[in-house]
Each structure stands twice: as structure tokens, then as C-alpha cells.
Amino acid sequence: MLHAFFGGTFDPIHNGHLRPVEALVDEIGLNRVILLPNHVPPHRPQPEASPQQRLKMVELAIAGNSLFAVDDRELHRTTPSYTIETLETIRKERGKTLPLAFIIGQDSLLTLHLWHRWQALLDVCHLLVLARPGYNQQMNTPEMRQWLVQHRVTDTNLLRQQPQGYVYMAETPLLEISATDIRQRRHQGISCDDLLPRSVQRYIELQGLYR
């Protein structure tokens, strides 16, 4: 079984996170996706919602959906959340032979070379890349293009036959939804209907978030 993890700030979690992952599940045949909310993301502005609020929104978004689970380990950290360190911990917990995958967006793939110890990622997991609207389909440098050619696979069976080491580019739906846009809409008093689960929207309203 391929164990897949999906990290993010989730400030807030929205349909642009959930629907492409649901499509990825169908495309690859995943049994479960574990969401990993970040505590202190090192490469982007700090979240507006607190760790506890962001965790609650994730829990509300996946309530009753057996496809998803949440792992809150990063929210207990007091230092920046480096993906490689979390994945190395998960690899140690689950053994050397279990296939592990980490889900990222096309936008993250294009800036992967800026991540802390990014070269070590494929030593502990596969990367499953969600399509993102408006982003270049080609890596930015010849070195990164060669890296992708070396590791990319199109046969999903390979993701289960090896514990790590591959990059899979998924054909997931392109949704023009972002947490930044949702926060800006909230700041301006514009409706966010259909952009995020209703339970999350109600929680945001009750907590007075993103005003």
C-alpha cells in the first residue's frame, strides 16, 4: 500500500486543496491521504490563523470522509517546519520498505530547489505533483529539467513497487482557488461560497478570521 502525505499551511483549507487530491486518489488508486498542517512555514508569510484554528478547519473539512486523516505533529514544533525532516521521521516510523509519497503542487515543484535539503526528498519518498493553473510545465533550469527526466515515471504501479525515488506528474483538475484569494475576499467582505467546505466557512465566520 502506498502511504501518501499532503502538507500545507491550510490557512484556510479549501476546495483547491481537497478536490485535486480526491482526483489524484482516483488516478493513482490511493486508500488514504494524510494531511500535514505546517506550523511555521520557512519560505512564505506566516499564517493569519493560529495553529489550533488551522487544525480545526482541517478536521472540519475532512469530517466524515474516510479518505482523509490528519497528522498534527508539525503543529507541536516551535521551529520552522522543514518537509524533509518530517518525512525522515515518518520513514523511520514506517520502515525502510513501505512505499511513501508526498503530494505537492506544480508551483512547489518549480521552486523545489529552494527547499531545505531538497535533494534528499527522493531518498525517503516519491513526489506526487498536482497540476496548478498558470504555472510553467517545465522546470526553470537545465539541471532541474535533467533531475525531473531522471526521476519521472508515468506508470503508477512503480510507485508501489519501490519505497521512494520517483516523481509522478498527475493530471488533476485545474482549480483557480487559493488561500490568499480567500483571505483577500474575507478582508474585502466578498463571498467565498463554493471555494471551501461550508463547515470551514461557518467556522471562519464564527471565529472572525481574515477580517
Automatic annotation (TrEMBL):
Keywords, ordered alphabetically: ATP-binding, NAD, Nucleotide-binding, Nucleotidyltransferase, Pyridine nucleotide biosynthesis, Transferase
InterPro entries attached to this UniProt entry: Cyt_trans-like (IPR004821), NadD/NMNAT (IPR005248), Rossmann-like_a/b/a_fold (IPR014729)
Pathway note: Cofactor biosynthesis; NAD(+) biosynthesis; deamido-NAD(+) from nicotinate D-ribonucleotide: step 1/1
Catalysed transformations (reactions): nicotinate beta-D-ribonucleotide + ATP + H(+) = deamido-NAD(+) + diphosphate
Enzyme Commission code: 2.7.7.18
Pfam families given in the database record: CTP_transf_like (PF01467)
Biological process annotations from GO: NAD+ biosynthetic process
Superkingdom, taxonomy of origin: Bacteria
All residue ranges annotated as the Cytidyltransferase-like domain in the record: 5-185
GO MF term set: ATP binding; nicotinate-nucleotide adenylyltransferase activity
Purpose: Catalyzes the reversible adenylation of nicotinate mononucleotide (NaMN) to nicotinic acid adenine dinucleotide (NaAD).
HAMAP family noted in UniProt: NaMN_adenylyltr
Similarity comment: family membership: Belongs to the NadD family.
Protein known as: Probable nicotinate-nucleotide adenylyltransferase
